[in-house]
Design brief:
Layout (H helix, E strand, L loop, with lengths): L5 H32 L12 E4 L3 E6 L4 E9 L1 H5 L30 E4 L10 H6 L6 E4 L1 H20 L4 E7 L8 E2 L4 E2 L3 E8 L4 E8 L11 E2 L1 H8 L9 H9 L14
Antiparallel strand pairs: 1-2, 2-3, 3-6, 4-5, 6-9, 7-8, 9-10, 10-11
């Protein structure tokens, strides 16, 4: 009986461990790539705009208007159910190379600093909550528009996500309405309309909303339109990562009964 090669056994096991770690690393990488490939919320890139990926959302910033043309994010059931707190502390976004609007712009302007991605959608990650207060995620809102129209729509969409599906959301000002009035040292544009689009891939449904910025009341259902019509109005290509047949189906659908507009009443 020969002597046991202890060093050989050790080397053999160490090699196997390295192989297993490599396999795990490769699998994790593939999973990560697969996850990135499922970013259905991202519109096609807009020319002459800077797109920035933050922790849980992306923005496309238009320097000419000193506004984001869109913000896009995923809202999982877990995010929709999460709770938390935040402090309203707005700051310029250092990732935007041309600079963003600032708090000074809003002084005595008659507008509040509105957020496209609400912090309430980001409570699973504190860093993401903080990033919603970057000025690249902000637009000018009238207080009544924000309180009585925009926030109720945000709450409604969170209720939809709580029903069990991850939702893919895009929101922004309708920049196709330019020219605009401006305010502040940075000449921030004053949009006349805002939009939002919501996609549920699992449920094979999508819906759009367009709301005039001077509106101070109205049920969310009254602002609903097809995503096709929303794209015509904004000039954006929304949800381009969807398979063509599914994209055509959901973006043309005007069957808004698929969405529970009474969710907040339950």
């Amino acid at each position: 009986m020969g002597e046991r090669n202890t060093y050989g056994d050790f080397a053999y096991h160490m090699t196997n461990r390295k192989i297993m770690k490599s396999i795990v690393s490769i699998v994790a990488g593939l999973i990560s790539l697969a996850s990135l490939a499922q970013q259905y919320e991202l519109p096609n890139p807009s020319p002459r705009e800077q797109q920035v990926q933050h922790t849980l959302f992306s923005v496309s910033y238009n320097e000419g208007y000193e506004l984001p043309s869109w913000a896009a994010w995923q809202l999982t059931p877990e995010q929709a159910k999460a709770t938390g707190t935040f402090k309203e502390k707005y700051s310029e976004d250092p990732e935007i190379t041309t600079g963003t609007a600032s708090n000074k712009d809003y002084k005595d302007a008659g507008f509040i600093i509105g957020q496209l991605v609400p912090p309430e959608d980001m409570f699973t990650t504190q860093q993401a909550v903080d990033e919603t207060f970057l000025m690249s995620n902000t637009v000018p809102f009238k207080p009544s528009f924000n309180k009585y129209v925009w926030e109720p729509l945000e709450k409604l969409i969170r209720e939809w996500a709580k029903e069990g599906s991850t939702l893919y959301i895009v929101a922004g000002p309708v920049l196709q309405d330019a020219p605009f009035g401006t305010f502040g040292p940075n000449k921030v544009s004053i949009p006349t309309r805002f939009y939002k689009a919501v996609l549920d891939v699992h449920g094979e449904r999508a819906i759009g909303f367009i709301i005039r910025s001077n509106v101070a009341s109205g049920a969310s259902r009254s602002f609903a339109i097809t995503v096709d019509d929303l794209e015509k109005t904004t000039g954006l290509d929304l949800f381009p990562e969807l398979p063509d047949d599914l994209e055509k189906k959901v973006e043309s659908s005007n069957d808004f009964t698929k969405w529970n507009f009474k969710a907040l009443e339950q």
